[in-house]
Amino acid sequence: MSPALATALEGAAKIAFVWGVVLGAVLPNLIWVERRMAGLIQDRPGPNRVGPFGLLQAIADILKMFMKEDVVPMYADRLLHTIAPLILLVPAMTTFAVIPFGSSIHLFGRDIPLVIADVNIGILYVFALTSIGIYGLVLAGWASNNKFALLGGLRSSAQVISYELAMGIAAIAVFLAAGSLRLPKVVEYQASGTFLGFLPLWNCFPQALGCVIFVVSAFAETNRLPFDLPEAEAELVAGYHTEYSAFRFGMFFMAEYLNLIAASAMMATLYFGGWSLPGLHPTGILGSVISIAVFAAKTGFFIFLFIWVRWTLPRFRFDQLMNLGWKIFLPLALLNLIVTGALVLWGVV
Amino acid sequence: MTGALPGVAPMAVPPGAFLVVATLLFAIGLAGALLKRNALSIFLSIELMLNAVNLLFLTYARMRGDLAGQMIVFFVIAVAAAEAAVGLAIFVALFRTHRTVDVDKIALLKW
Amino acid sequence: MKQLWLIPALPLAGFLLNGLVALVASSMRAEKESGADHPGVPLPYAQRLFHGVVGVGSVGLAAVLSFAALVPYALGSMQVPEGLAPIVQKVYTWMAAGDYTIDVAFRLDTLSALMLSFVTLVGTLIHVYSVGYMQKEEGYGRYFSYLNLFMFAMLTLVLADSLPLLFVGWEGVGLCSYLLIGYYYDKDFAVAAGKKAFIANRVGDFGMVLGIFGVFALFGTADFSFVELAKRQVLAGNAPLGVYAVCLLLFLGACGKSAQGPLYVWLPDAMAGPTPVSALIHAATMVTAGVYLIARCSALFVLAPDALTLVAWIGAGTAIFAATIGLAQNDIKKVLAYSTVSQLGYMFLACGVGAFGAGMFHVFTHSFFKACLFLGSGSVIHAMHHEQDMRKMGGLAGRIPQTFRTMLVATLAIAGIVPLAGFFSKDMILGSAAASGHWVLYLVGLFTAGLTAFYMFRLVSMTFFGAPRGHAEHAHESPATMTVPLWILAAFSVVAGAVGIPAVLGGTDAVSRFLEPSVTHPPIGEMAHGLEIGLMLLSLGVAVTGLAWAWRWYGRAAGPVEAVSPQAHAFYEKTGALGRLVANRWNVDEGIEALVLSPFRKIGTFLWRGFDALFIDGIANASAFLVELLGDLLRFFTTGHVRNYALAFTLGFAALVAYVWMS
Amino acid sequence: MPALSGELVVFGCASFLALAFALLMVVQKTPVRSVLSLIVTFFGLSVLAILLAAPFIAALQIFVYAGAILVLFLFVIMLLNLKEETADKDDRPVQRTLGLLVALALGGLLAGATLRAPVPPRGPLTGPRIPMPDEIPALGRLLFSDYLFAFEVLSLLLLVAAVGALLLSKRRFE
């Protein structure tokens, strides 16, 4: 088997694995989880009819979506109206490529790093994709030829761009510490030592500020409550996807969840040591499996956090949102960057 | 003329091809800038021209294995950002006063 | 003292401070009320205080510093026969051309020490005096800033170690004199006088500059080390070619600044400025700069004896000429002005006969009593509510006693009455004139002394004695800030001569010995003691005669305003044309107007109308017209369509690329 | 011409995308669509950049250009609500034809010139060699040493631009 072919197979396998897990396992259950938790939080049962504990609810929802009529409003820009959800979905699905989901595994006599693509621009790739995702929202809003949708689209793009700044600057601090843009390197760095002697060298400790900023910004990036202004039903009906129905709407739905998962994974990777765990030195296949589990657990926690927050906090007003982003987070992120720079300079981290 | 330099892998694609693509993009951008009437479209075409030149820089950088070319591109992009911000602001202001961004309709500074 | 540069720097700082504050304040006033200057509206007390403190303080401090510098130096220099070596301190290199550099360097030697002493002293006193004299002026701040600027320039002039730097001070004082003469810029005559002074000085400065170039050409350097070189050549007894020309040029400069020869005309008009200014600039300090320059370059002049003789004759001529004019003036300040010119003439006479020491001595003493006289006259004018015509005064002795006493002292001093300062200096001049064998000059000087005594006492009499005329009844004494300086100056006019008591009177003639190291002079023959004593008595007698005559005519004058003293009037009637001529200042101004100015004006008018307006402007307008024509044609390329421009631009670029490719 | 390799294929697709959508951008009448086509072009360009061993620049291309600048364009277009380019056809045929000709001519000229241009000398490099595979640290080092001044000036420029844009797009100047 020629090495090139082997590499190709390896890549394919990894892609299959990741997408399989994400789309096949996480996504459908996520729908169920969210709705159940919503019920829990709001002191009501939530979906419990379809299957045991309503476990099959997700399947039912998806089926429903595919069977509904697909309406394209008159005077809408058909082409754009069609591709908008795709523009949103594709980046959401490709984000996972650079996220290391485990320590390298040894199979068939070759060392396989558990990341689809270890590109040297690592995080930039993610940000690039998110910035592309914006177009999905904007165009959905524009193409629908509907003022609510348009406003939603504008809002969402404005929001995403604004928070990308704070997020990016917070992330820069991480790479300052790790000394590389490659996410695997970042994870290795966090696994490498301790902070102040007793804490793991997870970035959330030396860069607590940056961590908070990143997490909150992630909420804004994914248009989740308390920052779901683009689809604020009270004012905008349903924002940019007002005019979408059936599986196109489903795509938005999916994209949102995928972004959520990706964001959670990013948080886990950047600030909470990715697949690493203090005292865990994965060796052999078992070790790798454990590392994957650790990573999954961390990601799961953040997904849970997303849902938890969504059903707990009220919505911000748009101006509040913008103020927070520009007047508070941006300066704080810069401060965090400077402090981290100093720490690195004096070799504290 | 493949830039087989120490530290730089030889190029599988002849650099000339890149150059041609770049110049063609430039020409297209130019045509757009000359033919479009919507100020924004003209602006877009100019951005395209900028990027064509960027490609040229990158190609030469690759041919010489010289990082300076990439550096220049970096600066070009940054300056383009500034230029876009101001230019678009100007268009907004223009639209407020003239209700149009058709450059043929905005010909005030004539003899 | 280590920092000589501080001495000029302090007044400069004062100038900046005062000027800034004055500017800001006046602009603020302009905003509050309409128009920046309000004649007769005095400044708020706080601002006046500020200007006064800064103005007087800076100069006073400079004075203290300079005395701290010069007293030890002077004492030390008196110990050793050949005097101490001059202290030269370089501040920084001003300009460097090739290997030749001109430094901003300050020099303290006996000569500059002498100048420094009275310049700072009199300057400070006059600043104090101004506080009282100018307090009602709305231009108070402007006035003090100019005055400080003047002090800066004058001190630079005195302390400079090179002709270029000296020239900076030279021009600086000229500028300040112009500014201060034209201080009442809303009065035409003041403005005109200012311009006159400036232009007259330009004539001199033209010579001055050429002179500096000449010195550079002769000695290859323009700092005062050239004096040493010149001295050596004197000893060697060979005069380099062209030294005559240089001397004459420098002397021209001196004439301009010190109002000698025909260039004196600006000084009387300069009286348009405030009186303290006349005292400081146009009597005590600036106008003596010419003498200082001659003394500085004494070695040079000694190399050119004929030039020196010319100096002497010009000086003597000016002295007697101005004195005669002084006889018939009725404006109190004008009399003093002509007297100043005449006294300056004396100084040049002294230099001319080679007695530079005597000249500088007279500069020294003269500065005190003439300043005192001017300030006194200022006090009188102050008392008379800006009345300057002596015919409208009289009988003020009782009303403003302090002014009277001080002025009387100063008058006696200038008249040359033993043992006041003027006697010794004037006598030294006359004596050296005689000793050097210039008997004619001696007689001229002697006669002038008589005239001086006469017109000075005439001034005193018309002002203070006789029956009060005009508003003289209700005159009031000036405040202490004015009278105290008067007293101090009067005191100095009494004692200042002590430094120059000649040997025959048991003195030590300190001043000459003091200046010996810094000046070079031709050998002056010794006189028999008997002769010397005789000459002294003679000059004293002449002076007394002058006084007596003036007293006889004006002492009890009670005549009407138009003919204050009947005898004088009768005499004047008798002299006829000559008298009228004298009264009319020998028609000098008219003469200059006719011979110099009007031809110049004619030429200028021709050049303006014929050459500039037609030819130059013609060219300009023609070219402008062509451009306009071209523009009219080309403007149609500006279609206002961005795309056209872009297209044209692209075409050009394409052409360029094609050209590059083809070549 | 080397054998048909994967890189070559990628290059072909990318450059085709870029050129095709660039053309589309020009002929497109709806501003929004031209923007979108330009984005695709930029994608192609960034792929080409990766081929040219400049992945960082490629990321910037997407991140800054597609992600920020063009979004700004889109905003303005939506803000001004520019639908179709005004229907009345171009009333200056001269400009149109001449423009087209000049553009083509210049394009040809430039293409010829660039191809004819001598290979840039292998002489002393102005910057360091492109390190493979990770050029980013080198870029950073360069940026903060040799190009520091330019970098600072640039930051200033961006600041000024931001202020200027704000001032211009304010409703009133007061």
Summary tags:
heterotetramer, C: 663 residues, mainly alpha, two-stranded antiparallel ribbon, 72% helix, 3% strand, D: 174 residues, Four Helix Bundle (Hemerythrin (Met), subunit A), 2 domains, 0% strand
Summarize the main sheet of chain B.
Answer: none
**Bulk shape of chain B:** elongated
- Classify the helix fraction of chain A into a percent range: 55-70%
The poorly predicted ranges of chain A are none
State the total count of DSSP E strands of chain B: 0
Helices and strands of chain B, in order, run as HHH
Main interface by residue count: B-D, 81 and 93 residues
Instruction: Using the coordinates shown, work out and report the CATH topology of chain B.
Output: Helix Hairpins
The CATH C-level name of chain B is Mainly Alpha
- Provide the domain count of chain A: 1
* Terminal Cα span of chain A: 44 Å
Label the structural class of chain A. Answer: mainly alpha
Number of helices of chain A: 11
Name the assembly state.
heterotetramer
Mean pLDDT of chain A: 82
Please compute the radius of gyration of chain A using only Cα atoms: 21 Å
**Order of the strands making up the biggest sheet of chain A:** 1-2
Helix content of chain B: over 70%
Structure notes:
The complex is a heterotetramer of chains A (349), B (111), C (663) and D (174). With 349 residues, chain A is mainly alpha-helical. Helices cover 66% and strands 4% of the residues of chain A. In chain A, strands 1-2 form a two-stranded antiparallel sheet. A two-stranded antiparallel ribbon of chain A has the order 3-4. In chain A, helix 5 (147-178) runs antiparallel to helix 7 (208-221), helix 5 (147-178) packs parallel to helix 11 and helix 9 crosses helix 10 (284-310). The longest helix of chain A is centred in the N-terminal third of the chain and has 39 residues, at 3-41. Helix content of chain C is 72%, strand content 3%. In chain C, strands 1-2 form a two-stranded antiparallel ribbon. In chain C, helix 8 runs parallel beside helix 13 and helix 16 packs parallel to helix 19 (480-495). Chain C is globular and about 105 Å long. Chain D has 2 domains: 1-84, Four Helix Bundle (Hemerythrin (Met), subunit A) (Up-down Bundle); 133-174. In chain D, helix 1 (6-27) packs antiparallel against helix 2 and helix 2 packs antiparallel against helix 3 (55-80). Chain D has 174 residues and is an all-alpha fold. Chains in contact: A-D, B-C, B-D, C-D. The interface between B and C is medium-sized, with 13 and 11 residues.
